[in-house]
Amino acid sequence: MRRLRCIWAIAQENLKKWGIIVFRIVLFLATNLAIIVLLGLVMSILGVDSRSTSGLLVMAAIFGMGGSFISLAMSKWITKKSTGARVIVNPGNPTEQWLYVTVRRLAEQAKIGTPEVAIYESPDVNAFATGMKKNAALVAVSTGLLYNMSKDEVEAVLAHEISHVACGDMVTLGLIQGVLNTFVILLSRLAAGVLNNSLSSNKESGGLGIFGYMAVTIVLEVILGFFASMIVMWFSRRREFTADQGGAYLTSKEKMVSALQRLLAHPQPSHLPDQVVAFGIRPKIGGMTLLFRSHPPLEDRIKALQT
Questions:
Q1: What is the C-alpha separation between 175 and 168, in angstroms, rounded?
Q2: String of DSSP letters for the chain
Q3: What domains does the chain contain, in order, with CATH numbers?
Q4: In what order do the strands lie in the sheet with 116-120?
Q5: What is the CB neighbour count within 10 angstroms for residue 66?
Q6: Active-site pick, 161, 204, 221, 240
Q7: Contact of 179 with 254, CB cutoff 8 Å
Q8: Which residues pair with 130 in a beta bridge?
Q9: What pLDDT, on the 0 to 100 scale, is given for residue 207?
Q10: How far is the CA of 220 from the CAs of 36, 97, 190, 242, in angstroms?
Q11: pLDDT mean across residues, the chain
Q12: pLDDT above 70 covers what percent of the chain?
């Protein structure tokens, strides 16, 4: 009987994990579909003709910049849904009270409005910040972080996230991503158009055709997007050092170093949703090289604070 209960408990836990994964995938697809439909309506209303060079530029800007900033504007809602983060409205225990008061104090020190403070259930030792406005952001911490760090270390992590908000990192990263998206969309279509025109002049080939043009465009977008992501990740790594310095300024260098060392002692990678992984305190392990990681190694961040 006990064995059956154990098997049933494991099965329930696995179903719960798969349910979360499926929910995140559906939410991601639905969000992106809604963005595409919305931007398509904007193009229709503006009467943009993507067949001309100027129209293509406008189309690229609408989808490149528009998609990036719509995602940023929706980031708080998306992350609350995908992580199950619970915003603290009326603190229900001493831990929640301390967390809310600490974030408010750090925000006052950084001269920004108090962000929404949330807790999400996860064994990950992590925290993140998101939001389109400095004075209306969201700072969330995992239960794993609260259970595995001292108050001084949690305070330093919160200060790190507040520094992201105060420096406007979310908007800046969204702007960089939007500009690069625009160039990727524009250049891939221009290059595909040049190739199509070149082949069209040859009577034997007759051009790429609609499907050939789309295939070449997609391949070029993947290649250009590959290099664009390197630029985005480079900026992401640089602002991590700045946020660490900001965390040390708002608390102390010792607290910030201690928090990073604690993260180093818990080697499990981040499992944050892609929408906010760049703004988590813990790096997400992945990518072929350091060039494609959103965070520098924890050892480098500790060394930067100690020098």
A1: 11
A2: -HHHHHHHHHHHHHHHHHHHHHHHHHHHHHHHHHHHHHHHHHHHHHT--TTSHHHHHHHHHHHHHHHHHHHHHTHHHHHHHHHT-EE-SS--SHHHHHHHHHHHHHHHHTTSPPPEEEEE--SS--EEEE-SSGGG-EEEEEHHHHHHS-HHHHHHHHHHHHHHHHTTHHHHHHHHHHHHHHHHHHHHHHHHHHHHHHHHTSTTT---HHHHHHHHHHHHHHHHHHHHHHHHHHHHHHHHHHHHHHHHHHS-HHHHHHHHHHHHHS-PPP---TTTGGGBSSPPP-SSSGGG-SS--HHHHHHHHH-
A3: 82-166 (3.30.2010.10)
A4: 86-87, 116-120, 138-142, 127-130
A5: 18
A6: 161
A7: no
A8: 138
A9: 62
A10: 20, 51, 10, 34
A11: 80
A12: 77
As a whole number of angstroms, the distance between CA 124 and CA 85 comes to 13
pLDDT at position 8: 47
| CA count, 13 A, side-chain hemisphere, 150 | 11
30-67 pLDDT, tens digit per residue, is: 544 555 555 556 556 655 555 666 677 777 777 778 77
pLDDT tens string 225-235: 888 888 988 99
The closest of 306, 279, 259 to 129, measured between CA atoms, is: 279
Work out the burial of residue 13: count CB atoms within 10 Å of its CB; fewer than 13 is exposed, 13-18 middle, 19 or more buried: exposed
Residue 163 burial (CB < 10 Å; 0-12/13-18/19+)? buried
> Using one digit for the tens of pLDDT, what is the confidence trace for 155-207?
999 999 999 999 999 889 888 988 888 888 888 888 888 887 777 766 555 56
Residue type, 236: S
Q: Is 161 a catalytic residue?
A: yes
> Among the listed ranges 64-68, 131-135, 246-250, which one has the minimum average pLDDT value?
64-68
Distance CA 108, CA 218 (A): 47
Which residue type sits at 256? M
